[in-house]
Fold:
Amino acid sequence: MASPPPSTPRPPGLDPVAAARWLRRVPSSSPWLHEWVGQRMAERLDWIRRQPRHWVSWSPLLAGEAAHRLVARRYPQASVWLAGELAAATAARWSAGAQPRRRWPWLRAAATPTAAEPRVAPDGAVPCAVDMVWANMLLHAAPEPRALLMQWRDWLAVDGFVMLSCLGPDTARELRALHAAHGWPAPAADYVDMHDWGDLLVEVGFAEPVMDMERVTLTYPDAERLLADLRQWGRNWHPGRHPTLRGRGWRQGWLQTVQQKLPRNEQGHLLLTVEVIYGHAWRPADRTADGVVRVPLQRLRDQLQQRRPG
Structure:
């Protein structure tokens, strides 16, 4: 992806270097939360009548391998391009036979048993206009979200759409309150509100964005299990985080404080809120300076072919 202009705004409360480093990290397995959100986002495809012939899967190793398979089985005749920082790593792992396993028994399989084999977008550029960009649980970590959304828009054919999800600002609000009460730096980045994401989608040229969100309360038996999940979902990308490494004493003190002070439910389990934002938006036809909409002839042919009965 080409470097965006210096004026491109970044999300507040996000260290772009730390976030970019995380996006390049190859995980041993997809985070379970990303898989769960990916399933929820895949259900939203029921709202969309368009059947993609070509689509892009953005960094599925991190976004969710099983969720990628759900979408691929939904559109078995469509060609799939892998893009993002982990595209090559994804192809290498899958070609070596390390196909995604059904680690999550609650993740339903689609009815269609087979799907097209994905290909890596050469040099980070998709070689044809696509009908869908699938980007699950990654936008909140994008160092340059405006440039990324513009790239996705440029890849889409007219009437193509982006499906995205990300964390919202209420994520880990109990932990944020605990850190603030003890005078500690913020435990996570300041995530962007869904209305701001909708506004940005319009600013970069998308049309009719539909945004919604849900808050999920997770429960944990102890602070150790909570910390393990936090580390799997991502690190602390806040610019004001501790500037140096801390030792075992700090870790033990943090665990003890969380164990004692974090809110609990009636069963005594620790509580943590996760806000998940979902969105989709369309790629409209381009308008020229004189207000005339000009659409390439091939795009019209593609759309007519796709909408032809049978």
The longest strand covers residues 207-220. The mean pLDDT is 86. The longest helix spans residues 248-261.
